[in-house]
Amino acid sequence: MKTENSSPPDPQSVNLDNHPCFNRDACSSFGRIHLPVAPKCNIQCNYCNRDFDCVNESRPGVTSTILSPGQALVYLEEVMLRRNDIAVVGIAGPGDPFANAEETMETFRLVRARFPRMILCLSTNGLGLTEEYVRQLAALQVSHVTITMNGVDPEIAGKVYAWARHEKQIFRNRKAGELMIEKQLQAIRWIKEHGMIAKVNSILVPGINDEHLPEIARTVSELGADIMNSIPLLPTHDTVFENLPEPDAKMRFAVRYRCGEYMSQMTHCARCRADAVGKLSESMDDEIQQLMTQCSRLPLNPREERPYVAVGTREGMLVNQHLGEVTEFTIFAIDPEDPEEFVEVDKRPAPPPGGRDDRWTNLARSLGDCRAVMVSAAGMSPSQALREEGLQIVEMEGLIEAGLSHVFHGEPLPPTLRRSFGGCGKGVTCGGDGTGCG
Question: What's the topology of domain 16-296?
């Protein structure tokens, strides 16, 4: 049986031996940090329940908060001031990096410019990983790419995925399996063609693919994949596979032994969270946890001076207007005489209805000194347009002061005030003219 320490070729100038996930000997000396900048996912696995606000679980798909690329860089800088053992920066969700490709690539660009000797890696399901993205990753010296692949037989793979979304089409069952296998095998080819290290993660699901994993190993080894990680299923609440048994030690050993006939096997996986920090054996400490939360409350682009928050309000006390119905935003700032209080500083007209996407681009420009917009709801297209210009969207209903404390001071937003857009006319009260947010 091959071992995980039979090192693949070193294609980069950084010291790849310091990666604790790929080199067991590095575990006691070097740590990693995962930057949770990728909340969206393009598939739904039957074993996965993504949780974006959890401190009590340690498993993939879980994070305490989401960071923008700019916030992630500030967070990384602060962590590096506190720890001298971080050798790897990775992106592993909590969704998929290439369902959030813009955020993923921008994060890597920022990190590479700031920390030129850092090992960079990512973990993806491969569905959205195009050849152009692979070229960009190689140019940024992203050295390690992990593809999570659960079958090379469409029937077996199709049992693992509830659905896969590609080019605005939903695939299920065997069709989902066929699509995922095609994209994943092609992704591995591109990764190796561009000189990166390829790891394959396979979730070992009893009764589904436990007899099939050696075939995955054989197939991907023929494409040049360097190492495989057979991860035992962790039965998770509110998933299709929640009642399946977790593979025991005998099954894990037998599967890894058979897969090891074809390629090196990783045996020290820690099932890392999407916001993991430190050595594989460590849990995130409270100080780092608080630091990440504080960074998530910074402006999306923290290097910019954005001292204000724009609010959709009818009377100046409550957040109670949908983005599309606001005719005039009330602008707030921290009171210069009392940093714990807030003060109204301006009124700004919203662009008139019509104009489609240009309306939101114009709004973003008029609010260019604001770090956030607080409204009762906002549609997907306007939200995306505003975020691209560095504005955080806070959907809530209730006292403006609670929302401002959330944005400016990082105070938790009470669950009773949180809102989520459900589509025009579907649970969202909007005083517009029925023509939509355009």
Answer: TIM Barrel (3.20.20)
